[in-house]
Amino acid sequence: MKAVIIGGGIAGLSMGILLKRHNYDVVICERDTNVPIKGNAFLMHAEGVSILKELTFGDFSNKVFPGSFIDRFSLRRPNDEEVKFQKMDPWQCIKRKEIVEYLYEFFPDNKIEFGRNFSHFEYEGNTAVAAVFRNGEKEYGDIFIGSDGGNSKVREEIFGQTKFTTTEVKEVLGLLRDENICHRFRSQFTKFQHKSKGISFGMIPASKDELVWYSQYDVTINDIDDNTCPECMRKFCQDLLQDFPPVVQEVLQKDHFKNSYIWHTKDFDVLSSFHKNNVVLIGDAAHLALPFTSAGTTNALVDAHTLANCLFDTHDLKTAFEKYYSLRAPEVAKQVQLGRDLKRDFLNPVEKNDDDLIVPLITKQERSIKKITGERPISILYYTDPICSTCWAIQPQLRKLQLEYSDYVSIEYKMGGLLPSWENYNRYGITKPSDVAAHWDEVCSFYEMPINKNIWLEDPLPSSYPPSIAFKAAQLQDTGKAVMFLRRIREMVFLEKKNIIKKEFIFSAAYDVGLDAARLIRDLEGRAQMLFREDLVLSDLLEVKELPTLFFSNKNGKQIAVNGYHTYDVFEDTIHQLEPNLIKTSYDTSPEFLFDQFQTMTTKEFSYLRNEEESVSRAILEELFSKKYITRFESPSGNIWINNFEAFE
To answer: What is the spatial distance between Cα 269 and Cα 151, in angstroms, rounded to a whole number?
Structure first.
C-alpha cells in the first residue's frame, strides 16, 4: 500500500517513519523548499517523548536527545509574588529546528518531495487517487494523510472551509541565548500573569543556554503589526510588560528580536470525523487547540502513533480510521475545552482568585492513594498526628487495609493535636524533648519501623500543631494527595531528621506529592487553622484520649472505637463485626505492583505486605536497588525504599 503524506512537519515525519517501518511505500510532500524549521521552541509531554524514542528505535548512542527536561511550574504576579508552585508531569522543551532535523535523519531523503504546495485531489468516484500540487506535480497513492498544519488545505478540500474562533489573544514569541538565566530557572516553566489584565509573560529553558519566551496579550489592550521591525517589537513588549519584574525586563533587553514573531491564537470545534473515504487528517490539520495547553506537538506524535496502530491492526481503511477517531476525538475535545477555559480566565482575570486558577500543562497524576468515590459500607474516622510514633508504627496495617478492603472502606483523616507546646506538657511521663527520643527508641525496637530519635536531641519540634495545620491545608486542595503529604512529612521527621515545623520542609513536601506548594503556604494562615480547630473540637466531643484512634462505623450508625496500636486481625475483626459478609480482595504482591501502589516503603512494610520474613524481603530489596529499580534513603534505624520502576518503562 502506498501512503502519500502531505506535510513534512513533526506529525508527517512521525507518520512516515512508522509506516515505512511496516513496509508501506511512503512519500512525504512538503510545501517548503527545504526542511521546515520555522518556529522557536515548544513543550512536549512525556507521552510524546516516549513515542519519539520509539520512532527512533531508542538508539541514542551517537546522539544527544534534544531539549531540556521541565518538571516544575511557577505562576507569579507582576510584583514577583508566587501564587502557584507545583510539580508537573515530565515535559521536554525542544527547539523546533532540532526536533525536525532529528526526525529527518530517520526517514529516507529520496522519499521526501519539497516545494509541493497542495492544491486538490484527483478522484475516481469518491476515492482520491492522486494529490495535485500547485507546481503541476502529482503523487498517486492508496491512502492520503493530511498533516499540513492548522490552516490545512487538505482539511478544507475534504470538509470545506473551517470556521475558526476569533483571535482574541496574540503571542509574541522569542528565543534568547543566555546561560545565566537558563541556569537560574532550569527545569522550570515560569509564568508571570497580570491579576487584572489579559497580559502574561512565560519563559522556559530549551537548553543550558537557550531560553524560549513568550508574551500573551489581549488584543483589545494593545496590538502590533505582524511585520514590525525588531526594535519596534521590543518597544511594544517593553511598554506592554513595564510592570513586570526585573527578569522579564532583562529578557526583553537582551533579546535582539530578529527571530521573534507574532502568533494569532485560534481554534475550531472538534470535527465530526477525521477522515473522508481514503483521506485522513492528523495533528493540527485534524484538530487545533489554543496554545495555552501546549498540547500541539504531543498531539501530533500521539495521532501518528494511534493511526499507525489502527492501520496495522486492520487492512480495512474505514474501520481503521473510525477506530482512530474514537480513540483520539474525546481526548482532543477535552484539550480544546481546557484551552478555551484558560483563554476565558486569561481575558477575565479579576473573576478568578489565585486558588481557582486553572494551571496549564499539569495533567492528572495517577497516584497510589485512591480517592474515595461514592459511599462505602464501612467508614473510618482516623485521629492521628504527624509526629505520633504509634501512628507511624501502624502504617503497614493501614496499607494492607487499603489493598484488601479499599472497595468497602473509606478513611477520613483528622488531626489529634498531640503536642500543643512543651509548656506544662505531661503525657505518659513525657515532659521534654529528650523523653520523646527515649520513647521513639522503644517504639522503633518493638514495632520494627525505622525511627531516628536524634531530631529530639538536635532540633526538637516545639509543637505538632504547625504540621497538623499544614495537613489540613493539603486537604483543602486534594484529600488523596493530603494523605501522601502526611506520609511525606512523617518520612521527613521519623527518618530524615527534619524539623517539619519549618515552612521550607512543608513547602518541599507539598511539592513532592504534586500539591500547589505556594497555595498551601498561604492556606496555613487562613482556613486551614479553622479546620484544625474543628478537628480538635470534635476530638473532645468523641473523647479521643489516645492516638491513634480509629472509629469504625457502618451505614446503620453502629460504631466501634479502636484505640492505640493493634494487629491487623483486630482491624479485620472490627470490620466483620459491622459487616459480616464482606470478603477481602486478594492483591498482587510483586515488587512492581507494590511500589506502584506505594511510592515509598520501609523494609517492614514491604515484608508485611508480602507476608514474608524481613530477611527475605531485605535481600529482594537490595537486589532491586542494585539494578536501580528502586533507590533508598538510609537512616540509622533502617532504610526507606523509593520507587524507580518508571525509569525502566
So the answer is: 14
Whole-number Å distance between alpha carbons of 535 and 520: 18
630 exposure class (CB count in 10 Å sphere: 0-12, 13-18, 19+)? buried
Tell the CATH topology of 591-648.
Answer: Arc Repressor Mutant, subunit A (1.10.10)
DSSP per position, 411-444: EEEEE----S-STT--BTTB-SHHHHHHHHHHHH
How far apart are the C-alpha atoms of 586 and 567, rounded to whole Å?
19
- β-pair type (549-554, 409-415): unpaired
What is the DSSP secondary-structure string of 578-616? H-TT--PPP---SHHHHHHH-SEEEHHHHHHHHTS-HHH
8 Cβ contact partners less than 8 Å away, ≥ 6 residues apart? 28, 29, 30, 32, 35, 36, 112, 114
The arrangement of secondary structure in 2-65+94-164+269-350, i.e. its CATH architecture, is 3-Layer(bba) Sandwich (3.50)
Question: Residue 190 carries which DSSP code?
Answer: E
C-alpha separations of 338 from 46, 309, 333 in Å: 19, 27, 9
292-349 confidence digits (pLDDT tens) = 888 888 899 999 999 999 999 988 999 999 999 999 999 999 999 999 999 999 999 9
User: What does the alpha-carbon distance between residue 217 and residue 201 come to, in Å, rounded to a whole number?
Assistant: 9
Looking at residue 373, its pLDDT comes to 39
Residue 165 phi, psi dihedral angles, 5° rounding: -75, 160
Domain-wise residue ranges, the chain = 2-65+94-164+269-350, 378-578, 591-648
Q: Which of 207, 287, 301, 200 is nearest to 248 (CA)?
A: 200
Q: Is the pLDDT of residue 261 over 70?
A: yes
Q: Phi and psi of 422, rounded to 5°?
A: -90, -5
Helix axes 568-578, 395-405, angle to 10 degrees: 40
How far apart are the C-alpha atoms of 146 and 143, rounded to whole Å?
10
206's grid cell: 530549551
**45 touches 298 (CB < 8 A):** yes
Q: Torsion angle, CA of 575/578/579/583, rounded to 10 degrees? A: 10
Domain 378-578 CATH superfamily: Glutaredoxin (3.40.30.10)
DSSP state of 60: -
